[in-house]
């Protein structure tokens, strides 16, 4: 299963979601490669922090716009059950490359109608990729949803005509998503069982595995 978190707009939560999903898949005992395609290198920094703290984490490798070439990501992916690609914003070349190898493209979107309106360029990239790869699946993931507000519903309504399914799972605006990377942990592992953050991440991973036709076996807590 190769998942690509894509989006031309910055601040949509791509890296946060990619880290959360990769860490949760790893916690379930799966062999996971987290491909960091963002020059900022946040995923690689997270892995270094985890190593310094003596924590196990998914394998993290830096990749670039040539990731789809023979001997690059396809060769690396052979040794893993899951590959999660964190794409940078405003780099259409990297995102196009990721879409040529992904099984599922995930487009994170912030909680407002304005965030939804800004997805146009990303949706065009996905549509272009599907011309060549018609079986490429793509979904929208709502992120940074504030509890006890109706903003998320507004985003869902604004996305109604975007042409992509909207995942039922969504990620809230919670402190754990911000604090977990500095601890070298995934948000679900940092928050712990019973915390809304952990529930959100596990629900998201369950849904992604279901879309991929794979059993959602959660780790023992």
What does this 3D model show about the protein?
The chain has 221 residues and is α/β, with parallel strands linked by helices. It has one domain: Rossmann fold. It has 10 helices and 6 strands. It has helices at residues 14-27, 42-52, 73-77, 92-99, 113-117, 120-132, 151-158, 175-179, 187-191, 196-211; strands at residues 2-5, 32-36, 59-62, 82-86, 104-109, 137-142. A 6-stranded parallel sheet has the order 3-2-4-1-5-6, with helices on both faces. Helix 2 (42-52) links the parallel strand 2 (32-36) and strand 3. Helix 1 (14-27) packs across helix 10 (196-211). 45% of the residues are buried.
**Main sheet specs:** 6 strands, parallel
Number of domains: 1
Q: In what order do the strands lie side by side in the largest sheet?
A: 3-2-4-1-5-6
Residue windows where pLDDT falls under 50 for at least 5 positions:
none
Mean pLDDT: 91
What would you call the shape?
globular
Give the name of the CATH architecture: 3-Layer(aba) Sandwich
Helix percent reads: 40-55%
């Amino acid at each position: 299963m190769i998942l690509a978190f894509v989006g031309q707009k910055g601040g949509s939560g791509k890296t946060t979601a990619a880290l959360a999903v990769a860490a949760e898949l790893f916690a379930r005992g799966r062999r996971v490669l987290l491909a960091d395609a963002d020059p900022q290198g946040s995923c690689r920094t997270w892995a270094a922090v985890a190593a310094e703290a003596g924590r196990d984490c998914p394998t993290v490798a830096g990749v670039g716009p040539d990731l789809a070439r023979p001997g690059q990501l396809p060769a690396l992916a052979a040794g893993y059950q899951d590959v999660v690609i964190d794409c940078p914003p405003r780099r259409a070349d990297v995102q196009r490359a990721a879409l040529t190898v992904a099984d599922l493209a995930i487009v994170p979107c912030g909680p407002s109608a304005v965030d939804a309106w800004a997805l146009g360029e990303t949706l065009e990239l996905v549509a272009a990729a599907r011309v060549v790869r018609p079986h490429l699946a793509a979904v929208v993931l709502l992120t940074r949803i504030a509890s006890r507000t109706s903003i998320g519903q507004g985003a869902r309504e604004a996305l109604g005509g975007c042409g992509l399914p909207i995942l039922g799972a969504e990620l809230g605006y919670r402190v754990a998503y911000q604090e977990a990377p500095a601890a070298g942990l995934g948000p679900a592992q940092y928050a712990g069982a019973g915390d809304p953050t952990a529930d959100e991440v596990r629900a998201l991973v369950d849904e992604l595995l279901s879309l991929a036709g794979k059993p959602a076996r959660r780790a023992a807590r």
